[in-house]
Specification:
406 residues, alpha+beta, 5-stranded antiparallel sheet, 4-stranded antiparallel sheet, elongated, CdaR_GGDEF, GAF-like_dom_sf
Amino acid sequence: MAKIIEGEVDSLQTLAELISEVMGSPVTIEDEAHRLLAYSMHDPNTDPARIATIIGRRVPEHVQRALYESGAMQRLQDSTEPQHIEQLSEVGLSRRMAISVRHYDEIVGYIWLLEYDGSYTDEQLEQFRHGARIAAGQIMQQQRRQQHIDLLRRLLSGRFQSEQEAAQQAKESGVELPVHHYVLLLEHDHPPDMSGWSERIVQAANEYAIRVTLHMQEPSRIVLLCGFGTTAINAHHADAAALIRSMITRTRELLPQQEELYIAAGEQVGSALHIQRSYRQARELVLLHRQLPETRTIHYYPEAGFYRYLPAMHREAEQFPVTWGPLDRLAAYDQEHNSNLLQTLAVFLDLDSDTKRAATRLHVHSNTLNYRLKRITEVGGIDLTSMSEKVTLYLELKLLWFDTSN
């Protein structure tokens, strides 16, 4: 007979399948409020109550009411032993055997299985009890994980009113918030199988004495709240920015080689109330990675230079657009004459007005470049000897590429 080995149980879903295999019956695992946590594969002989529970992710109210009114729930709550539950045909419930799942004396859930003929061996019943003991640990672990995710979501969204409130919820969740925090964000446009990624990121963090305090994984991204103290910085003879860069480099080494994987860290902050700011910065840096490939080598928000201001400048430009400026004139000229003055200007400014390097980049003769620059000044009404004009044009070109990508 198959046995339930605790070391092989990595989730409640795995446990449900193992119990079903041992007992030869379909299994559902619920929390104390009758919300569905896991269930074994469907069986041809399943009943309407089980189907409704799986579809609705909780036991239907009328089935719960019938179980309490019949006294079945009272017997389950009063005993640690498996209980036989008689058929309740009026609510579509076939015969069941069930057991309460307890963490010490507290009921944290229930395991139910369809009882076909009511004949189970002593060994099967002992395995059923063993499954309930394992389920208790799994449910508590899942509840703690959910508490941690809830805490992280509140920190990321800035829903705490004070440091004391954040510290209190962290303490209740069994989490010690570090003095210095930053948010690390990994996003993927076409999510691969990301199982095991969080563990590898934690490994990279540990190598630099950085602690991953909280994390959550979603289908296309992983969000981590990381922290460290001055001892970590002293141990590695580096500042915070250098440590964060090193951790990200090591993370990339440990993860499978992926295109379209964006990794960004918000600035280090010293208050739980500022974690939201670090998260927003990480998100904006990922947005820059997507829109401007040249920024993909920048992984720490404070090091993004003027690129940090592009999203805000883009929002401002959308709200208060300039309808006809130098770039518009150049774009219109390019379209009418099938020329590339706009691209020429972008390369020229990108290379710090170095005509030799710009001509090489554009694959044109220096005389051709000088002619184009002359046309740029005439068509655009631009003074290329004015630093303020060049800075303005440089930023507006970046905004143009940002807007086009967006």
